[in-house]
Amino acid sequence: MKRRAKRFYTILVGIFILTITAFASMSSEYEPVSTEIQIDTFEVLDSVRNRLIPYALYSPVTKKTPDSIRVVIFSHGYGSNYSRNYLNYSYLTKNLARAGFWTLSIQHELLGDPLIPKEGNMQVVRMPFWVRGEGNILFVLNDFKRKHPGLKISSVDLIGHSNGGDMSVLTAKDHPELIRKVITLDHLRMPVPITLKPQFSSLRSTDKVADSLVIPSAEDCLKYGIHIVQLKHVTHNEMNDEGSRKQKKQINQYIQKILEDRF
């Protein structure tokens, strides 16, 4: 009996250790690399458009210059010209930097800009705002390259929330040779191109529905590797820093899985 009891407890302890190890590996799979990050802010003048463009760079602190880097360009949702909107998604941009991505977050709206139209054919009346955002994205990417001539960029990915997602989709559509992946957080207006490259993904909220033909069919998504993720318990306006810790973690996990080809 004593041998059986001893054997039983030995097996039980073994199962317990394996279970703890499994849970640890599951959690670590989705956690960012524990890296110190640096945040720098800039205001650069696009002389061609005579437009000032503020942006923030979230980057991992490294002891030596890396052989190559991965760049993410983030575009915020519409904020009625609120001047610090580009800093309002820090849960996401900081997480990306800790995971090793050099993340550029752009301020797309300035005081004095015309407000975005809320009536009419949205794909028509809002196109000038997306085109302006596309210009901002391309200019900031070139400004980053100019400031860091010694860094080799291995990939450029775009992430955008709502209106920022619309302009990200437009940018990738017009410049597929520059962009590896696009992830939108509940963009509503700009149709996702039916293409293999760049790869498109979209995280969807529980309270908004995209316009007709914005989201590809299930068949096209399967054929072209487009990921449409229906989030649970996350509304459209909870995708910035106002969301709960649980909501932010859910969004970050999906983003990291997509960027690292683990989806």
Would you kindly provide a written description of the structure presented here, covering whatever features stand out?
The protein has 263 residues and is an alpha/beta fold. It has one domain (34-259): 3-Layer(aba) Sandwich (Rossmann fold), CATH 3.40.50.1820. The protein has helices spanning 2-30, 90-98, 122-125, 127-147, 163-174, 218-224, 245-259; strands spanning 37-46, 51-60, 69-75, 101-106, 153-161, 181-185, 199-204, 227-230. The longest helix has 29 residues, at 2-30. It starts with a helix and ends with a helix. Mean pLDDT is 90; it is low at 8-31.
Give structural attributes.
alpha/beta; Rossmann fold; 37% helix
Termini gap: 49 Å
Order of helices and strands: HEEEHEHHEHEEHEH
CATH topology description: Rossmann fold
Largest sheet: 8 strands, mixed
How many helix segments? Answer: 7
Number of domains: 1
Q: Write down the oligomeric state.
A: single chain
Q: What is the helical fraction, as a range of percent?
A: 25-40%
The CATH H-level superfamily is Alpha/Beta hydrolase fold, catalytic domain
Rg over C-alpha atoms, rounded to the nearest angstrom: 21 Å
* Number of strand elements: 8
Based on CA inertia axes, which overall geometry fits? Answer: globular
Strand order of the largest sheet: 1-2-4-3-5-6-7-8
Strand content: 15-25%
CATH class (first level) name = Alpha Beta
Low-confidence spans: pLDDT under 50, at least 5 residues? 8-31
